TrEMBL record, chain A:
GO terms for biological process: spore germination. It is found in: Membrane. PANTHER family: SPORE GERMINATION PROTEIN A2. Keywords: Germination, Membrane, Transmembrane, Transmembrane helix, Transport. This is Spore germination protein (Amino acid permease). NCBIfam families: 2A0309. InterPro entries: Spore_GerAB.
UniProtKB/TrEMBL annotation, chain B:
InterPro entries: GerAC_N, Spore_GerAC-like, Spore_GerAC-like_C, Spore_GerAC_C_sf. The keyword Membrane applies. It is found in: Membrane. The keyword Mitochondrion does not apply. Keywords: Germination, Lipoprotein, Membrane, Palmitate, Signal. Residues 197-362 form the Spore germination GerAC-like C-terminal domain. This is Ger(X)C family germination protein. Belongs to the GerABKC lipoprotein family. One of its GO terms (biological process) is spore germination. It is a lipid-anchor.
């Protein structure tokens, strides 16, 4: 630990932008609007802004924690060991690994569910899920640089579809739906903020990929830019969905972004949403691979487990879990459990580590 | 190194998956029946469903097949119709749904709900109401050799006629949205021919009132740019016994709404700017000077204002809100309450101001 990672595996600072963006934006982008509008209605944009700002603060804390480590190039595995001792540190590391794998599984399962419902309601999902698992294995075993490459492509593929969206549906937008402003109580906005925070989970992989970034001081701005673009993407899709659907309609729509796309018609392609869902595979692949790679890497650092072995075990676990978490209701329950744990992780664990780092610095400088 | 092995292994895993997944769920277009238009009627408290299936047996020639079934509910339409067809019926390309008058009066909510949950139903689906039986109107389209005859009729009338724009998405928008009601195109048959004869206004999901195709222009003008809409306006002739008529064709228009008061007697003002051309004018009207034109403009404005007022009071008396007044008040008032507004709706005051501009009157003098 603490050793310099060879240039063969590192990426330049700008790539951190794609990593952070991709780790935040996942399948939830298809459905988050309904969840936050349910509580805060016309004011739900406020909750995105609040969560966005809080994540900027957390990213700032993460950089503070990581750059303060004495042997440079530390990651959360070594930090946990040195801050909490062998026993607690190792259990924390195991918890983080489980958390990362669970996050990857939730993305994997939710994507398959969307595909099943929208495109192939009758199809047996096993061939598709095995195909996806094969792709994941291939990407993760390719190492960090491969994953960053996939992140880059997934960023552009999504941008390509979602940025022209507002222009194409202009006729159907009702700006009146955004008003009145500030019509909801602080409690309602807090509920919606809580729901929105789920959709930002993932950026904490920063704690693990940090040593793989060259010139870390320069990478800060890219990480923040990644968070900012994710926030802008969420805001844009929220505003479009709110103006496109009436509120009652939005609350009955499980995947507002996909419904929106289904209005568009281009020559030869009557159902554009099928195509976008297929391209979405790249996005999901990047997402899952990033989490699994982080999990394998943490295992390697804490127990010297070979990544290939742990990866196969994890993928086998995916197959096994797919038996147990089969329907929409179970997926929702699994997602909720995962998300709530994630919230504790980012809003409690990271600040605690930050405070310890800060105290340590004080003690040393005294 | 190991990477070659990884790639080989990945290919070994991926290839069979591709083969397996490409073979399941295959639907080839000339081996299925595409249900493109559908109709629902009430028949002795049972639902009669009708579909039109288009078959492209020869190039550029479509034969339309009609299938009917009667059932306890609208939900088992497809399985029941399948027992009458030799190919699998697919409804992913359904573009038109017509409701019979009894069905529309009883409420089309169940259909709207079930369609909105179905990912196969496109947002661009068109819907309509028939004066009597939907199946009768659908049957009348068979000789046109176009299984989407009604949909095309609706879309062309939205582009170049009086019909305001709508589709399945906007219908759901108004149906589920607070403070709005939707409307559907209304069809009648006239000596075996189908005619678009206005719009049917709905309260919640029930058909309660009808507006003729002439007055539909007012609705178009109030909801969107009324480009291409036309409106016949009676003028008091010189001998004042007989009316002369002017045909006004809208070039562009814009309606803006303002809330004046939102307490127990709500009030709004609507101001409409419209540019129109008047091509055919009777001999009694002379348009020689600017003054003549503005006299005509005033007369047209007055008629439009009167008709708009009539339309709004019709909406109030029938308790329908196709223009979304409730939504307007919702966007301007905090803690808006739908029930309160519904109660006050009939007393709502609307002030209408119309600013009409005649821009061209044909190429001859």
């Amino acid at each position: 630990m603490g050793k310099i990672v060879s240039d063969k595996f590192t990426v330049s600072p700008i790539h951190l932008f794609f990593v952070v963006y991709v780790s935040i934006v996942d399948v939830g982008i298809m459905s988050f609007q309904r969840e936050i509008v349910k509580d805060a209605g016309t004011d739900s944009w406020l909750s995105i802004v609040i969560v966005g700002i809080s994540v900027h603060v957390l990213v700032w804390m993460i950089f503070r924690i990581l750059s303060a480590q004495k042997p440079e190039n530390a990651d959360i595995v070594s930090i946990n060991r040195s801050y909490f001792g062998k026993v607690i540190g190792t259990s924390l590391n195991i918890a983080i690994v489980i958390y990362l794998v669970a996050g990857a599984f939730v993305s994997f399962r939710s994507y398959l569910e969307v595909v099943k419902i929208w495109i192939f309601p009758m199809m047996n999902m096993w061939p598709l899920s095995l195909l996806l698992l094969g792709l994941i294995y291939y990407t993760v075993s390719g190492g960090f640089q491969t994953i960053v490459g996939i992140c880059l492509w997934s960023f552009f593929s999504i941008l390509f579809f979602f940025v022209p969206l507002p222009l194409l549906v202009t006729d159907y937008l009702h700006p009146r739906n955004l008003f009145p402003l500030f019509d909801h109580s602080a409690m309602q906005i807090l509920h919606s903020t809580h729901r929105m925070a789920f959709h930002y989970l993932g950026f904490e992989t920063l704690l693990i990929v940090y040593p793989f970034i060259q010139e870390q001081a320069k990478s800060r701005k890219w990480a923040h830019l990644g968070v900012l673009s994710a926030t802008l993407m969420y805001l844009m899709l929220l505003f479009i969905a709110m103006m496109y659907f009436s509120q009652g309609q939005l609350l009955r729509t499980i995947w507002p972004s996909l419904n929106l796309i289904s209005m568009l018609e281009i020559p030869l392609m009557q159902r554009l949403e099928y195509f976008i869902l297929s391209v979405w595979l790249i996005k999901i692949l990047a997402n899952i691979s990033l989490s699994l790679w982080a999990a394998c890497h943490s295992l390697k650092l804490s127990f010297r487990v070979k990544p290939r072995v742990s990866l196969i075990v994890m993928l086998a676990l995916f197959v096994l879990l797919q038996w147990f978490i089969g329907n929409q209701e179970e997926i929702t329950r699994a997602t909720t459990i995962y998300s709530n744990i994630g919230l504790y992780f980012i809003y409690i664990f990271i600040p605690i580590v930050f405070v310890i780092t800060w105290l340590k610095k004080k003690v040393i400088s005294l | 190194m190991g990477s070659v092995r990884v790639v080989n292994r990945a290919i070994l895993i991926i290839l069979p998956c591709l083969f397996i997944s490409s073979c399941s769920n295959q639907q080839i277009v000339d081996r299925i029946n595409l249900a493109q238009s559908a109709g629902y009627d009430l028949q002795d408290k049972r639902v009669k469903s009708t579909i039109l299936v288009g078959n492209n047996l020869e190039k550029d020639k479509m034969t339309v097949q009609i299938l009917e079934t009667v059932s306890e509910s609208s939900y088992d339409m497809i399985p029941r119709l399948q027992t009458k067809a030799n190919k699998t019926i697919q409804y992913g390309q359904m573009r038109m749904v017509l409701f019979g008058s009894d069905y529309a009066k009883k409420g089309i909510g169940p259909i709207l709900g079930s369609f909105s949950r179905d990912s196969k139903i496109t947002s661009r689906l068109q819907m309509g109401v028939a004066d009597k039986e939907a199946s009768e109107i659908l049957a009348a389209t068979i000789k046109s050799h176009d299984s989407l005859f009604l949909m095309n009729m609706i879309e062309k009338n939205m582009e170049s006629g009086n019909l305001p724009r709508s589709n399945f998405h906007t219908i759901l928008y108004s149906y589920y949205g607070a403070g709005r009601d939707f409307f559907l195109p209304y069809f009648v048959t006239e000596r075996g021919l189908i005619k678009l004869d206005g719009i049917a206004l709905f309260n919640e999901d029930k058909w309660v009132a009808t507006v003729g195709i002439r007055e539909v222009f007012i609705v178009k003008m109030l909801t969107e740019n009324s480009r291409n809409g036309s409106f016949m306006i009676p003028l008091r002739g010189s001998d004042s016994e007989q009316y002369d008529y002017v045909l006004m064709r809208s070039i562009s228009s814009k309606a803006s709404y303002r809330v004046i008061s939102s307490d127990s007697t709500p009030a709004i003002s609507i101001s409409i700017k419209i540019k129109a051309s008047v091509k055919d004018i009777p001999d009694s009207v002379r348009l020689k000077s600017r003054q003549d034109v503005s006299l005509l403009e005033n007369e047209l404005e007055e008629t439009l204002r009167k008709e708009t007022e009539d339309f709004i009071s019709l909406c109030q008396s029938k308790k329908v809100d196709p223009l979304g007044f409730g939504d307007l008040f919702r966007s301007k008032t905090r803690n808006w309450n739908e029930e309160q507004f519904q109660a006050a709706y009939s007393t709502m005051k609307a002030t209408i101001k119309i600013d009409l501009d005649i821009v061209q009157t044909g190429i001859g003098k």
